[in-house]
Amino acid sequence: MNLQQHHIGTIVVGSVILTSLAVVVASIPVFIKHDWSAAMLTWTGIALLLVVAIPAFRSSPYEAFQPLTFILLSVMIGVTLKIPLVFLSQDDELLYHLLLGYSPDILFRGLFVMIIGLSMLTIGYLIRIKPIATTRLRFFSSQISGNTWFLLIGLLILTVSVFAIIEFVKNFDFSLADADVAELSAKRFQTVEGGEYRTAYGYLRWAVSLTPLLFTIAYAFYLQSVNISKQIFAVVAFLAAMVTVGFAVFTSSRSEVADLAIMAIILIYYLKKSVPLKQVITYLLLAFLILSLITVLRSTRSIESIESLSLSESLITMTVGGRHFIDLGKTSLIIESVPDRIPYQYGTTMVSWIVAPIPRVLWPDKPALGGGKLVGKEIYGLEEAGVSYARFWCMSGD
What we know:
Elements: E1 2-4, H1 5-26, H2 28-32, H3 36-52, H4 54-58, H5 67-80, H6 82-88, H7 92-99, H8 107-126, H9 147-171, E2 190-191, E3 198-199, H10 202-208, H11 210-224, H12 227-250, H13 254-272, E4 274-276, H14 277-299, H15 303-308, H16 311-318, H17 328-337, H18 348-351, H19 372-378
Antiparallel strand pairs: 1-4, 2-3
Helix pairs in contact: 1-3, 1-5, 3-5, 3-8, 8-17, 9-10, 9-12, 11-12, 11-13, 12-13, 13-14, 14-16
C-alpha cells in the first residue's frame, strides 16, 4: 500500500485534531476534581496547538514535510500532551524530572511566553510575500557527475569519519572486549586539565557528522538510479548509515538516529511522489528499536536493570516524559531562574560561537558556547549538559 502526498498531509492535520480530542477526554478527571488551575493549563495547551495548526487547516492540500509539521509535533509532545501527564501521573520520580519539585502552576510562566512566540510564528505563516529572487553560486565550472567521482568522494568521507571515530574512542580508553553492556552507549565527555568545562571533542564529532550528509546524497541517487549505479549508491548509503548509527549509539545521541530515519522518509516522499507504507513502517520500527536501546543504555548501568526496563517506559522517556522538543517545563524553569540563579547574558551566548572552531583541548578556558551548559548546570545540576558541536555546516571544537 502506498500513501500519496495528500494522504500524509491529511494524516498530519488529523493527528492534531485527534490529539486535541484525546487531551479533552484526559482532562475530564481534572474537571471532576474541580482543579481549575489544572483545567486552565490543559485547555490553554490545546488552544496553543490549534493556533499553531491554523496554517495547516487553511492549506489544501497540506504539504506534510515542511517546518510547520515538526513545530506542530514539538508543541504536541512538549506542551499539549505534557500538561495532562503532569497532573495525571502518579510517578513522583517522573514529576521531579520534569518540574524539579516545583508546583505545576509554574507552567503558566512558560505557557505565557510560548503563546506570544508561537502566535507570532502563526501570523508569519499566514502572511504571504513574494518569493525572493536568489542566484545559485557554482563552485565548479562544469558539473561533476559519474559513479567514479561519487565513489571517490564517498570513500574519502567514510575514511575520514572512521579515523575520527577511532581517535574519539582512543581518547576515552574504551575497549569493546572489556566493556560492560551498559557502557556501550553513554554521553562522552572528558575533563580538560586546567579548564572549567569538559570537552566533547566537537571537531572529531564534526568529522563523523559528514556521514549523514553522505547518506542523504547516496540515498537520493539510489532512489532515482537503475542497474549497477543503483547498487553502488545503495552500498554507499548503507555504509554511511552504519557509521552514523554506530557512532550515535556509542555517544548516546538519539537525534542522529531519528534524523536519519526522517531524512530517508522525506527523500522517498519527494522523489517517489508516494510513500510505500511497509517501507516507512520498517524504517520507523528500526529507528524506534535503536532509540529504545540508546534510551535504556543511557538510563541504566547494569545488564540486570536493562532487562527489567520496558519499551513503554522507553517510549515515554523519549517523548512526553522527556525534556525535549519545545518543553514547557524546561522553559518555565528557565524563566523562573532568571535573573536570580542565571544572570542576564546580554547576548554573550550568541557571540561566543565565534570561538567555536577552537578545540577545548587547545584552549582549556574557552567559554561555554550557547546557553545549554549554563542552564544544565545551574538549573538541573548537570556537569555534562549542552554538547557544543554542530553538524557539517558549523564546526565547533568543544
